[in-house]
């Protein structure tokens, strides 16, 4: 029989492997109408850094679109396809969403809708909604 998962507030990833209990940094991308990308901090290839006993637990990424335009994002392995307006996940202006991603996700890419001005989109590893 399967346990029923419980909903919990989003909790950023803690780095306990390095001997401390510090939050892993977020990735903030200066977004514009040209695609930009970066490496997600805390990426280990399977997220074993978060909990060696349950290496797939931290496969959620919170995305905060701090712009006044639609942002389109892709999250995946280093060979990630660059985000495009036509082929990426849309995040509304000012919205914060949580996506469940593969444990192999190490890279994020973002582009803003045509006519937008530049702004920041922040990606944070963690777990919860």
List the helices and strands and how they pair.
Elements: E1 11-12, E2 14-15, E3 22-23, E4 27-31, E5 36-39, E6 60-65, E7 71-76, E8 89-91, E9 96-100, E10 107-112, E11 119-127
Antiparallel strand pairs: 1-11, 2-3, 4-11, 5-10, 6-9, 6-11, 7-8, 7-10
Notes on the structure:
This protein has 129 residues and is an all-beta fold. It has no helices and eleven strands. It has strands spanning 11-12, 14-15, 22-23, 27-31, 36-39, 60-65, 71-76, 89-91, 96-100, 107-112, 119-127. Strands 1, 4, 6, 9 and 11 form a five-stranded antiparallel beta sheet that branches. A four-stranded antiparallel beta sheet has the order 5-10-7-8, with no helix packed on it. It starts with 10 loop residues before the first strand and ends with a strand. The relative contact order is 0.33.
Amino- and carboxy-terminal Cα gap: 24 Å
- Secondary-structure-based class equals mainly beta
CATH architecture: Sandwich
Mean of residue pLDDT values: 83
Q: How many individual domains?
A: 1
Shape: globular
- Listing every helix as H and every strand as E from the N terminus to the C terminus, the arrangement reads EEEEEEEEEEE
The CATH class is identified as: Mainly Beta
| Total beta strand runs | 11
Helical residues, percent? under 10%
Strand content range: 35-45%
Main sheet characteristics: 5 strands, antiparallel
**Which consecutive residue ranges, at least 5 long each, have pLDDT under 50?**
46-55
Determine the number of helices (DSSP H or I, runs of at least 4 residues): 0
The rounded Rg comes to 15 Å
CATH fold title: Hypothetical Protein Tm1070, Chain: A
């Amino acid at each position: 029989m399967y346990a029923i998962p419980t909903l919990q507030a989003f909790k950023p990833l803690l780095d306990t492997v390095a001997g401390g209990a510090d939050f892993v940094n977020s990735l903030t991308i200066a977004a514009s109408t040209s695609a930009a990308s970066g490496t997600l901090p805390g990426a280990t290839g399977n997220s074993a850094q978060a909990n060696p006993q349950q290496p797939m637990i931290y496969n959620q990424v919170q995305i905060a679109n701090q712009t006044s335009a639609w942002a389109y994002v892709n999250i995946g392995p280093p060979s990630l396809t660059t985000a495009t307006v036509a082929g990426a996940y849309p995040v509304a202006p000012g919205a914060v969403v949580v996506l469940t991603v593969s444990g192999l996700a190490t890279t994020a890419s973002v582009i803003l809708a045509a006519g937008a001005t530049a702004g920041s989109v922040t990606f944070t590893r963690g777990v919860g909604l």
